[in-house]
Structure formats: structure tokens, C-alpha cells
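Q: Convert this sequence to C-alpha cells.
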Amino acid sequence: MSVTSRYREAWEGFWREAPEEQGAVFWDAEPALTAGRHLALFEAHLADPGLAMVDLGCGNGTQTRFLADRFPRVVGVDLSAAALEHARHADPAGQATYRLFDAVEKTEAETLHAELGDVNIYMRGVLHQAEPDDRQQLVNGIATLVGERGRAFLVELSQEAKPVLMGLAQSPSGPPPKLAPIFRHGIAPGEVADDAVPEFLAAAGLGILASGEIPLITAEYGPDGSRIELPSKWVVAGRAV
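A:
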């Protein structure tokens, strides 16, 4: 099983259109407000920080490069070739490596695990954007990658985020400029029930080691000039023992 061609093309179109500069994409906030805060939550739970760190759904690599300053080997993976072009262009020194990857495809997850061994995973806001039929397969792929020793840090929009996004999208003046392309390309965030994430993890053989709530900081601002923040929940998951 792999993602649908419609879904893949939606992301290709989005990233082909996206500007090069950091912060031009809705969720591309600076790492100090995103991966930096997340690192403080999950680093203590890593059983082996020396494992390769995979930034799953790396996009243009802003967070990947931040992680590459802190871990010995970081690999940014994404479904979109256009996204990876952005990431490589922004990383001329090659701090991280980047590769095309469909986490829903079982054989791709098995191949990457055979190459890297057990890995730690950072994934921000990917599950809620996946199509409903792909979500369990995506988490199954994560379980394959972390193996026995790895840990996965997942941060996803909570149910409370949907009315915030819908309010922004339906504003009389139209959605904010950085949010509009997401809807235009047909990749509007879907709804994942808060209690569904633990169920996906359990079905994949992963247990939750830590969890909490933290706002997902965006690179966009509201009409009042304040930065848009979306309610989100985070978990650290690993092989159930």
C-alpha cells in the first residue's frame, strides 16, 4: 500500500509553488519555537541518542537542519521531491541527508530500517494531514523504523485546532496568505480524534512513554498581529514492553 497519486500530487504542487525563504510556509516557524521546544520534551526519553534521527515529513528541512546540529546523523524524509529540492538547496553544507520516502509503503519502511537500523523519529503535524485510510499504515511504518531501541516523538493538532483553522479559512477577508495555499492544493488538515493516536500506536505495537500538550507555533500572524498558534498534543512512543 502507498499513498494515493492525488495526495502525492497535491504535495508536489504545494512545494513547487512554495517560496524558497524560511518562514514563507504556514508551519515553517523558526526552530527555536518548534523543534527546539520539542527537543526539550523528548530528548530525555531517548534510549539511545546515538541512533540516526529521522525527520519524517521534513518538508523544506528547517527543523531537520536544527536537529542535525544536535545529533550525529539526521535524515530528512518526505513524500515530495519538490520539498526535498527546497531542503537540499537550503542545506548546501549537507548538515543532513534527504531522501524521498513514502512511510505508508511497508517495503519502503523495511528498506530504510535495513539501511539505518533502529532510528529515533521526529514527526510534526504529519498524521492529521494523511488521508484517513493511510493513518494506521503510517504509524505501522514508524513502528518498523524505531524497531526495538528507537523512540518516536509525534506532535499533532488536537481536536480543538479544527475550529481555529476553520475560523481563519472563513474569515471575511479570506484565509491568511500562508494558509491559503494549503487549502488551494487540497491538503487541508484533516481531523484526527485525540484518542485515535494512542489507538494507532497500540495497534502498531508501540507504547506511550510520555505525553502532554503544547501549542503548535506557525509562521503566520492573525489580523491583530499576533502569531497564530494551534492547540496540539505530543507523545513519545517506543516499543511496548
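The first helix runs from residue 5 to 17.
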